[in-house]
Amino acid sequence: AIYLIFPELEGKLHAIAARVPVPDGSLIDFVCEVERSTTKEEVNEAFKRAAEGELKGILEYCEDPIVSSDIIGNPHSAIFDSLLTEVVEGNLVKVVAWYDNEWGYSNRLVELTAYIGERL
Question: How far apart are CA 79 and CA 76, in angstroms?
Fold first, then answer.
């Protein structure tokens, strides 16, 4: 479905969903090759700025060790886990984000409904 939104990513992205026996809470493990050399600190700072700026209320930046049960009921679409960021050889970046696959999604639906309602 991501290719419907970002067709330029077709053939460049692969993802899986692993089902585990927990009541709620999911994890995104994203690895990509970036164009310029970077550091773990730079990557984390970029996500922190986004969480405090344009993605405030959607992305949460976390500096504490957390597990899936810690994010249940969290209204953010993603909780960026800064402790799990890795950079290999300067340009291979791994980031991890947690999300409540029911509550975060429901919050975005409420916001979308309000947005549409304001424009009717």
Answer: 7
